[in-house]
Design a protein that fits this description.
This protein has about 90 residues and is mainly α. Helix 2 packs antiparallel against helix 3. The chain contains three helices and no strands. The chain is flat. The N and C termini lie far apart (about 65 Å).
Length: about 90
């Protein structure tokens, strides 16, 4: 009878089983306004799934979409200025 044993290094993925680095946390913090804006847009869209869209819903979705665009623009500008300053 052959015994099948798992190799310990393969079972515990040490590379992925760790806390985020400071650089990764900084990147998440930088992107947080865009993430929050996208969640708010998704919430506004979800509210309209089970009922007809009324004028208030249209405004809510449009404003949330505009906040997403503004957050992405700000993130892009911050990233571009950071990369431009480092060169």
């Amino acid at each position: 009878m052959k015994h099948i044993a798992a190799v310990q290094a393969v079972v515990t993925a040490a590379e992925f089983d760790r806390e985020p680095t400071v650089a990764e946390l900084d990147a998440i913090e930088l992107e947080m306004p865009a993430i929050v804006a996208e969640v708010e847009l998704l919430d506004a869209q979800i509210m309209t799934l089970d009922r007809p869209v009324n004028e208030l819903d249209e405004r809510r979705i449009r404003r949330a979409h505009n906040r997403v665009l503004a957050a992405r623009r700000d993130l892009t500008n911050r990233t571009a200025s950071t990369m431009g300053g480092a060169a």
